[in-house]
Amino acid sequence: MGKSETSTQRKRRLEKNKLKRQQKLANESDEEKRQRLSKRRKQDKNKILTQRQLKLDKAKERMQRLRASETKKEHDARIAKNRQHTYEVRATESVEQREIRLRSLREYDSRIRANETPYQREDRLSALREHSAQVRACETPDQREDRLSALREHSAQVRACETPDQREDRLSALREHSAQVRACETPDQREDRLSALREHSAQVRACETPDQREDRLSALPPVRACETPDQREDRLSALREHSAARACETPDQREDRLSALREYSAQVRACETPDQREDRLSALREHSAQVRACETPYQREVRLTALREHSSQVRTSEKAQIETFNKTINIFCDRVCEICTKRCYPNQVTNCNVNVSASSYLPAELTNKGTILLCHRCKNHLTSKKKTCGPAKAYWNNLDPGEVPDIIKQLTQPEQRLLSRIIPFVKIVKYDGLFGQYGFRGQAVLFAQDIFEVTETLPNILPRSTDGIGMVVITEHLENLNVSREYNISRSRVYEALRWLINNNPLYHDVIIDNSAQILQEDLLRVTQHNCDENAQNNQELLEPVSDMAETTNANNAYTMITDSMRILRASWNQDNKQVFNANYTGRQCFAMVLANITRAAILMPHLWTNNILNTNMLEGDALYAKIKQLSVDNPLVPSIDATGYLEIRHFRVIKESFMMFGRFFKIEFDEETDLVGCLRDSVNRSQDFGLTLKEALATMFTSHKAGVLIASSKSLGVMYYNNYSTTTL
After folding, report:
1. What's the pTM value of the predicted model, to 2 decimals?
2. What is the CATH number assigned to the segment(s) 569-729?
């Protein structure tokens, strides 16, 4: 153990060391002084940093202990207080202070991230993702929009200032990151990503204006124009592989894919302008023409075979639908419920066994049958255990007023109103068509009245005069009404019916017959001419180009006028008449009959035809069908006629060079292939791109042909063009 020094010795030692240090400092050079001070400062700094780190470590431990023991309420209050403090500090800081703070944060983040391990980096990114997900889940739509707007502005500012090299580096990094992410994603994740992209693209494109859409399409680079042959081959190979994947899809997947394509095509075509639609159809026609010009005979035969099979399937399907429709409409309401005597359809009645003990209210004539035919309402009533009496509408309740006598049934509407004691005032409208129904129009206003007062004021002198029945039939042309049946008035019929009512109807027992009532049909019908001058002028304009035809038509009354510009000539029978035509193929000769009509038009203009000429045309067409059917058997030029029996344009090859009709020999030229396909509903052609409209198809056909055959719903119609007008013959 060392010897302990006294205070005096210690004092002397310290003074001695002080003197030595002073002498050393006095004798040191400037360089030595600088090194000494630098070393001293470094030691002081290390000491301060060590002390600060120790202080921070102690503060962190203390804060961790406090935060580990704090409640959720205290935690939320602390976080809120920190946010408020941070917000206040940042609100008052200057631009330079903010830049310094952000620079310090970036440097600190860079130092931390440079030293972190891959696991630490993954933990940090996971925590950031969770935090972002929590924040975004709680944000309102406005907050989300503000956040995205700020991100867009920041990205726009950064990208506006970046150099081409920086942009290329950024895009390369994005591509690498996307490639890494997509390489690791599962099929479900890939499908979710693509679905989200499709939805986003659909939303963006749905909101874009026509100018924005045009700018977007114009900005797309012409990739195919710049690609090399190898790149093109790679692209086509990828497309072929993708198409080959369709061979593995199920029928439901295929139907879903085709449905999505149809919906997309319908949406695109619904928004296209007439010029865009015309350009698209022109491109399709050119493409079809190029493909057909390059196809081999085998490919052409395969294509035509597929078209024939499709046509055959369509016709078979249409025939089945027509048969189903005819079968459906031929079901009549001829079944009668044996309790309420209601007429029902076969699917509205059932046979029911009678339970005598449970249905004691049934008459003996029904209980003796054992099984009766009932409507659903009566069956439910009969099988119910709660019902102890018969149905309210049972025939034994005497609710059936009986048959209306013929003397009342034959009365027309005006005659009924002449005999009605109460006349309702209603505006009745007859809808268009031969069998157009009647409907009501206008308002109905009800007033409360004493029923006894009304009964006492009923007219007791009948029939009424025609000027007092409150019925007026208004029409623009008297020919529009079937006056001889619906609106005529017979004086004898009115008085006979009135006498029957007085003798048989208690409500007419006090009626006095007025034998001097004025009954004139002129009081009932009122003809109003609407824009007669304008209609006459329009009609004259329609008839001016065919004045010669009009004169001939006036002289020949075989045609029936439908409108001012349309008329029709009807034959004495139709092609389904088995007494006139061959019963083996009635209803299938329409194609041959069309050719007969077109051939007749070549020697006699259709406006000169009569009923007998049209009958002869149909007979010649029937004979021509039989000849074509006979020549097509085992003929290598044409395929055999299918089971439906309908002809196709290719079957005319057997008579193309020569055929005899109307005592003359004819030769025909026709085009077997045509792109003139479409639907009779223009909306389908425009929305689903089914094909051309009827007007467009006719205009295209008449540019190179004088006549053609229009096929629709297993029916063929001939269309001709002459005297600058087209006519259609069946």
Report:
1. 0.33
2. 3.90.70.120
